[in-house]
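Hi, here's the filled form for the chain we discussed.

Project: internal
Contact: R.S.
Residues: 403
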Amino acid sequence: MVKKSVIDYIRGLLQKGYDISTIRNTMLKYGYQNKDIDEAVRELYNPTIRHEIHFSKTAFIGIFLIAISVIGISMFFYLSPPKAPAKLLDLTLEPIKTEANAGESISFIQQLANKGSSNRFDVVVRQEILDPRTFEVITFKSETRAIETFTTTPTQMVIPKDTKPGNYILRVIVEYDGNKKPATLPIKIISTKKESCLDGIKNQNEAEIDCGGLCKPCGERASDCNDNNPCTQDAEDNGKCSNNPITPCCGNGICEANEECAADCRKEEAPVTITPETLEGIKDLARSDPEKASQLCNGLEVPDIKDTCISNIGEVQENKEYCSSIASQKIKDSCYSNIAKSTDDKSLCTEISGDGIRDSCYANFFVPPNKDYSVCEFVTNKELRASCNTLRQLDELHKGIQQ
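And the returned structure, exactly as it came back:
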């Protein structure tokens, strides 16, 4: 039998402008049975003609008491807060620099979106570089990160110096509550073998392999005792070879005492070397001395690492001016998004050019506990905008029930 209280409840919500889909989802969250909802909807749109039946006074009282019980149980479900859905993470990777020399870094942006419970919880993020032919892990690093709604994180990984040239796979795996969420990007490692007088290749301006030009003159080589090192004096004495060091030696990459060699003793200042691991140290320095931290960042030669370094200062100082000086558009967008979240300033989202990161920025404001649904109209992604509007309707409906 169709419950009149359910019919009246649905009729009232329809009159307020809520659609059937929203009403159904909300009622299910508050404990209604799917069967009762379907019967009530059918009765509203296709009413059943009933014959009038006269009840005795005793029967009427019994039915009244049963109805009161049903209403009491229903109200219990109405007023009970909906259970938060299970944790559900979405992971996406956006490439920044996915081609590098061995010994250098690749860079990318990790986007983590919590589509389940709004409660803050920890996840383990493992980043790996795999050889696709053997699935051997070339290098990896792992970290624990707290996730609440959305996070966008510029990330770098250093390629081991002995990595062979070729195509590889970057794989990121997020682990939480026994679940795993992977994402991958293709990367390419190119050869980094530096030309020298010891590489066994005829290059630079050598007359022959590893001799002539800026290397040791070819005529000085001992025919059987040559060790292909321009910084040794090769000689043969009674059938025995000797390879005596030449000091100083131009071409060995070392600026030795009293050496005047342009190739070894360059005048310019050596570049600052900062690895992804020490970028966190820049954050600590930026808290106490942002000017010194900026000097270190601006001394970096690799553009993406330099941009990430500046972004870290901006996030620590909560100052968007640092973001404006970043060259990489994706890292700049991520900088604005992170500062918008930490300062609770949704206007910074308008500074973001990329639709995906800009939508993620706005999402930080409409998801619980913020519930600022004024940003819904600015969300570009249709599904995300629909989610924003649905959350607004559910919130309004929940407030109406509580009143």
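Let me know if anything looks off before we file it.
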